[in-house]
Amino acid sequence: MLSSLYTVLKNTQDEIILEFTHKNHKIFKAHFPGNPILPGYALIDIISKELGDNIGYIKKSKFIKHVLPNDLVTFKIKREDTKRMIKVYKENKKISEIIYEVS
Fold this sequence. Notes:
Blueprint: E1 6-11, E2 15-20, H1 26-30, H2 40-51, E3 55-63, E4 72-80, E5 83-90, E6 93-102
């Protein structure tokens, strides 16, 4: 279900750019009806999938602004051994920060 949620526009070692689909996607219809936003857990799930990581545990997940249907989102990735530090941007403004350890 998540694969139909977005399109990968760029995928490099330190940056991934995604474009999210329209508000009629199942995840946007469910969360929240009439006010569609991407659930925070989905953002974490998506980035770990795109990086090919199995998350051991999440050290930090901070969500500042919502990801909405049709949004263009940039993930800036820093890797240190088993640690991933990810800052998420929309319209050149930080909207989220995620840090996790891979298993």
